[in-house]
Amino acid sequence: MTSAWVGERVRLRATEPEDWEAFHSFEEDSDAVRNSWRLHPPSSAAYAKKRAAEEAERQPDLDAPELVIATKDDNAPVGSIVAHHTDRDHGTFCYGISIGTAHHRKGYASDAIVLLLRFMFFERRYQKAEAWVYSSNDASLALHRRLGFVEEGRRRRSRYANGRYDDEFLFGMTIEEFTELYA
Fold it and tell me: What is the pLDDT of residue 39?
């Protein structure tokens, strides 16, 4: 049996209530949280449990999936990936990805991105993926370039975090570019 949700290193899956502990621990690394979006005040374990339970019961959105990135071997959560700002009229979508610091540099992000793009392009008929990456996130900039994304633009000083302004880089990949690299 082959699953469209399983790659070389990871499987993408829905949130389970017991995932709360892993995601709660990922929030302890402020730099990693800032690289994903923005730093929030600490949340309680009770809130993390409630949020995971609510996510586990939510009906999946075919055009905006919110998925856990889990290791292929033991199904342990290592991060999350989400499609957002989906535009069916134009066939475009954005995505965001976050990997817990202890799981960086193991190929999980690249594997998860390819799985999500394959689903969005070949199952949902989207034709272009976009990702915004902060200029301070060198690892994500390198990852997107290595995956074959094209740098399409730059918004200067568009985010403030950790006492400094960051630029945002827009990366894009069309279905044709993806097919050439990953089909």
Answer: 83
